[in-house]
Amino acid sequence: MRFVLYIHLFLILCMSCKKSYENTQCKNEGKGGEGSAFTTYVEMEINKESPCFNPRNEEEFVYYKKDYINNKFQIIKHNISTQQEYVLAEKKVLSNFSWNKNGTIVFASDNFTLWTIQDNGSNLKQIINTSYNLSPHWFNNGDTLIFHYSPDLSTNRKICMYYNGQYLKYIENTGLKFFTPYQTNEILYTEYTDDKVIKKLNLINNNKTDILKTSVLNIQGLAFSKSSVFYSAHSGSLYIYHIPTMSIQQYKYGCFWKSYTHLEISLSGRYILACRENNKTDDGSTYLFWNDIMLLDLETGEEKQLL
């Protein structure tokens, strides 16, 4: 009995230490408290965002680098093992990247028109010249493109399906906030009007189904791999919803000072690329923010800052 009690105490202490450790990582590196409606946010002079895995090689990803000092805005391919980088293009990016198995990377630029570039840096071109297209994703094995279209950048959005230079379908007034490809012809998404619920939408028959009703507000990142849904929320924590067991796991702790936002899953489902947004203030009114690009290994539990 006493041995069992010692085990319980040990586990409690381990959990307390883990929570304490995580909380020490989630603090302001300067002075002052959390921001308010009157807070001014200033981006760090050099920042990076929107990492996206190479679907043919988990050792590679592409990301967007913003250098305000030298007025450079670059699409960069990065090798995790060698740390080598290759600038694919000098181009402003206004969305996530999506990379298909044919080596084509799609993104939004120039008033939210859609562009593609090959992963060797060749053939940069505009494929859709109408404005206000958001969140492009390759879909159904990378031969179909889906994205938001919002003529006024509001919550009034259409989902567009695009294939081989032609629009296949519009789905009107979805109110989508975030979405990610799911199964064949299906996406997972959240809505502005109810961002605590993750839903499934069939793009062929327009059927909607609730997948998960969460207890957290403002889902900010959303990804799917195999049988699990990955999402981050207003608190900045990273969660995993295991569909077969209908169980939710808080995988990484986050807070106002360090929060997980953009999420990408490797093709094997083992690795997560995430943007972790950092906030820092010395006066409580002006906040400096920047992103770290993190690699999380779901098999070992290891987390490493790549950039």
Notes on the structure:
The protein is mainly beta and 307 residues long. 8% of the residues lie in helices and 52% in strands. Strands 1, 22, 23, 24 and 25 form a 5-stranded mixed beta sheet that branches. Strands 2-3-4-5 form a 4-stranded antiparallel beta sheet, with no helix packed on it. It starts with a helix and ends with a strand.
Topology of helices and strands:
Elements: H1 2-25, E1 40-43, E2 46-54, E3 57-67, E4 72-79, E5 85-90, E6 98-99, E7 104-109, E8 113-118, E9 125-128, E10 133-139, E11 144-149, E12 158-163, E13 166-171, E14 176-181, E15 186-191, E16 197-202, E17 208-213, E18 221-225, E19 228-232, E20 238-242, E21 247-252, E22 258-265, E23 271-281, E24 286-297, E25 303-305
Parallel strand pairs: 1-24
Antiparallel strand pairs: 2-3, 3-4, 4-5, 6-7, 7-8, 8-9, 10-11, 11-12, 12-13, 14-15, 15-16, 16-17, 18-19, 19-20, 20-21, 22-23, 23-24, 24-25
From the alpha carbons, calculate the radius of gyration and give it in angstroms.
Answer: 20 Å
In the CATH hierarchy, the third-tier topology of the largest domain is known as Neuraminidase
CATH class of the largest domain: Mainly Beta
CATH superfamily of the largest domain: TolB, C-terminal domain
Number of domains: 2
Give me the number of helical elements.
1
**How far apart are the termini?**
49 Å
Low-confidence stretches: 1-23
- Biggest β-sheet, characterized? 5 strands, mixed
Helix fraction bin: under 10%
Order of helices and strands: HEEEEEEEEEEEEEEEEEEEEEEEEE
* CATH architectural arrangement of the largest domain: 6 Propeller
